[in-house]
Amino acid sequence: MLNRKDLFALGFMIFALFFGAGNLIFPPELGALAGTQFLPAMLGFIVTGVGLPLAGLIAVAWVGGGISTLSNPLPKAVGAFLTFALYVAIGPFFGIPRTSVVTYELGVVPFLGEPSQTTLIISSLLFFLATVFLVLRPGKLLDIIGRFITPLLLTALMILSISSIVNPLSAVEAPAPAYNSFTNSFVQGFLQGYLTLDALGALVFGVIVLHTLHTRGIKDRTAQLKNVTKAGLIAAVSLTVVYTGLGFIGRNSFGAVGSVSGPDLLQQYADSTFGTVGLVILGTAILLACLTTSVGLVTAFSEYLISLFKRLSFPVASITTAVLGFAISIFGLQTLLSIAVPVLMFLYPIVIVLIVLTFIRSAIKKPAIVYGATLFVTALLSLLSSLMSLKALPAFASSMYKAFPLVDQNMAWLLPAIATFIISSWIGHVSHNSISQKRAG
């Protein structure tokens, strides 16, 4: 078992891996929209924005591997496809370049005045050089991120958050129409946490955490699970505190800023309260948040490449991944979002179902039947949702899809998946009992 000092360092490392730029922006927006209904909105956000990633992290430790291990009951080709799609989507296709672009747009542009392609390229180049420098020290990730970078990040965030409580820019406004009651506000926060897509990252970062424990001599599965659970709870508490603090910035600034945009709320609050120093503090927080996430994603994708191409060395894989991330990052954030978000929204429900099934796998009589049927239905409805967001769904199919419950919340898959799980579990149970009776006879 890790000692207390190392356990907290691991927890802070997990926090830093999860806490990227999107996590920095969502809570202020939520605070601005929720206003006087801030508490239930933040509670809903924490349930899905913190709870789901924590569950994913523990699921990885539970089975001792990432998505390829979680999907073992499925045909190998399906598991391989899901693994490939996840790593490419949150790796060089979207997740890695987004960290660089957001750092540029939120941390660099405020000091430049006007963005340009040249400054974007220079910023991205420097960002990925820093990423590779940290990635090529895999044995020191716990020390570099857990003991050094995360405390700096937390300090910067706490300065901004505490000052917004002590010195609010405006009185708390009435909630937006969608947040006008405790229940509605909770549901909206729940959906915002769901849309962070951090459960995808949990399956990738969980593998990094297991590797970190392995390098520390902790190889026993039970010991790994205990350490991951404890460190994950430390990260979860840290995320909860930081999200709440950032939410207060939006809640206490919206009346003065007049915008619910996370970047606008953060930048104007930092500038109004601290001036240039505030923008430096905010820029530092954004850089550190994006850099730690980039390090985690590049490390994870590099290890995935090595699993596919055995002769590939880790330095070559890391540099290749960073170069791909750099090349895609120069297209800008809006281009990345328009292409990648539908893909991520297709994968996210599948990952959630995999995580849930992992914890109850031992109680399922016929895992192949239950996994196959439940994930097929989930994937089908998720695909329809993605095609609809791209406006690529024919009119008749769109009308049929809109008839499903929770379609407006991007969760049309939920109730059909639950129904399919119940039916397929019953079929598996009957089949199992029938086979047992024949053997007994």
UniProtKB/TrEMBL annotation:
Coiled coil: none annotated. It is a multi-pass membrane protein. GO terms for molecular function: L-isoleucine transmembrane transporter activity; L-leucine transmembrane transporter activity; L-valine transmembrane transporter activity. GO terms for biological process: isoleucine transport; L-leucine transport. Keywords: Amino-acid transport, Cell membrane, Membrane, Transmembrane, Transmembrane helix, Transport. It is found in: Cell membrane. The chain crosses the membrane at residues 7-26, 38-65, 77-96, 116-136, 148-166, 186-210, 231-254, 274-300, 312-333, 339-360, 369-390, 410-429. The keyword Cell membrane applies. The keyword Transport applies. GO terms for cellular component: plasma membrane. Belongs to the branched chain amino acid transporter family. Component of the transport system for branched-chain amino acids. NCBIfam families: livcs (TIGR00796). This is Branched-chain amino acid transport system carrier protein. The gene is braB.
